[in-house]
User: What shape does this take?
Amino acid sequence: MNRLALFFSLGLWTTACGEEHATDEATAPQRASVTDRADEQKSATLSLSVATTSKGSTPHVHTGVSDTDEDLLDVYMAFESERLVRVHRATGDSTFDDPIEVRMKHGPSLVFSGDFDGDGFTDFMAYAPDSASIIIYENDASGGYDRVDTLRVTEAVTQGAMWDFDLDGRDSVRFSTESDDIAFEIGQAVDGDYELVEFMTSDGGLDTEDTVLDECGDEPDCAEDPTNSGIQECLRAVDCRRDKCYWAACILYSDSLWDLPRYTGAMTACATVALAERLACIPAPLLKGGSTSTKTLSKGR
Assistant: This one.
């Protein structure tokens, strides 16, 4: 794919999807299958504003590879008012186990799941605005999560993009903030500790050439997966489009066609559109917690 095509495809996807979803912020529509998703999306009443808050009835939602079946995606939801993250383990194409609740002292408005320590199990990070902190939970490989670190932030976080930016086998999250000048990344360092690396997206401060050196990898293949259907195929397709959006932005930045502010903004746009699409995949009962039978695992500080 040539660079001009990349530019237009990235812009068209973020713009078209944003216009499609940015209507009235009402209840999230149910999505039980992929076959009728195109018709259902025409009447979707979902706003992109849900990307930066979970104070209302709509949670911030992320997905992670299931611990029990790598072909399935588990669903992670942040509920700020309830001060918890719910994890729905996938059991089939459109079915999930009773949700696991990870309770926190301060309510999370954003959640991002990924393999942050490179052990093959999905972990998660949650942003708690009241404490201005990112809380990191690692998967204990037995169905639970251990809170391993809390990092304070100096700017209010608005969105994040989870990706293996340096292709080292460990995911990290790059966060945008209310400041137009500052963004930061959180990931695990070589010594095993988690670190926050802040960088400027405009003039002044840090040397951006030394702080943002990404490896783009190969273009993601978003062909339809015949082994999945229903909610799982819908979620997989959303994540693949998001990853292709990240990849295209990375290529344009690496080739010096985009500067750092535009690259950072594009990554945020990719994540925001993916959130809106992901919410459209999930049935309303699941967004409200699914089964009333839950497993409470831990409480963060």
